[in-house]
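forwarding from the other thread:

> can someone predict this with flavin-adenine dinucleotide?

sure thing
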Amino acid sequence: MLDYIVVGLGLAGTAFCEKLRKNNKTFVVFNDASQRSSVVAGGLSNPVILKRFTMAWKANELMSLAKEFYEGLGKELQVDLLHDQPVLRILSSIEEQNLWFEASDKNLLKDYLSPKLVRNSTNSINAPYDFGEVLKAFRLDARLMINSYAEFLSAENKIRTETFEYSGLAEQSDTVSYKDIKAKHIVFAEGYGLTKNPFFNYLPMQGSKGEYLIIRSAGLKEFRALKSSIFIIPLGDDLYKVGATYSNKNKDNEPSMSARDELVKKLDAILLADYHIEGHVAGVRPTVRDRRPLVGGHPKHTRINLLNGFGSHGIMVAPWAAEQLYRHIEERKPLDPELDINRFSAMLPKV
Ligand SMILES: Cc1cc2nc3c(=O)[nH]c(=O)nc-3n(C[C@H](O)[C@H](O)[C@H](O)COP(=O)(O)OP(=O)(O)OC[C@H]3O[C@@H](n4cnc5c(N)ncnc54)[C@H](O)[C@@H]3O)c2cc1C
């Protein structure tokens, strides 16, 4: 008899499994490769929405918690997961420079936006109006984290690399069972895979496909992430991630020509140095109609829980949301109403 079954080992499943391990709970996690959101993510955790110069949802509260969590996990796994990542926003006009100054003077944003513009001193970037600098952002190597964590769980016999078949789940009065496993609780953390989950697919998950190009540019020599309509994120060894796109069509994991063309067009408008495309990846962000996570117990099935809906901010949100769910299940602590799936109880099928 285990304490938990977890389904999905993306950012959500990893944060929850780690919560369980830290609290000496027994568990097994099922994971397949049907969703790719966490492993293709840009990896940036950036507290400011750089389109509008506003704070991301709860960023002030969540950034330090997230950083502490990934630093701790990196130490445990003995891998280099986390990097401080300066971010430069390419400013496009005098008006935008003024908006930057205004924003950097606001109380909430002061700690995150430098009031001094950074001069564009290279010939490789088209930025005649210079850059605004974002402070305190970081980059997580999410793919490395998930792969290392899966290996770590494998050594402890806590992971099954297979698809969890929903039809095999049975409920007893105070337990759930699946194949040879009996557990007190099950937590689903399948990202966009939620759309196939018969317990939770009544929830308004929309999904947004995102694609990145990986380019090599020997002439760029930039250690800071650059942001205009897309990000250029340095990976080291002259490699950069370029993206991402947002699309509500074809929510699959296949790289598309239309996204490649869109990214190349946007990149050519900023990058003046030569480059070569080395890779192209795609995944589906688990986005929700009201842009808030989906967390909590099923209204009718008390042992069946959900940790999902992290949209474009999984890195920042996952550790906090996992903590919220864990304390809700174990200590009956109420969830933050903004992420509680009860806000959609009117959508629950009647039968
Ligand atoms: C292109 C792109 C760029 C992004 N960039 C950033 C960024 O820079 N910063 C940021 O914070 N966020 C970013 N995001 C968003 C972030 O990746 C997501 O918020 C996050 O990955 C969601 O994590 P998750 O664990 O909920 O889902 P997922 O990563 O999708 O993980 C779910 C896991 O469950 C598995 N699974 C599903 N169904 C089953 C089943 N039945 N049985 C077994 N296993 C199953 C899947 O295969 C997968 O491994 C980006 C997303 C994309 C697509």
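The helical segments are 11-22, 37-40, 59-77, 94-104, 142-155, 257-268, 314-331. thats all i got for now
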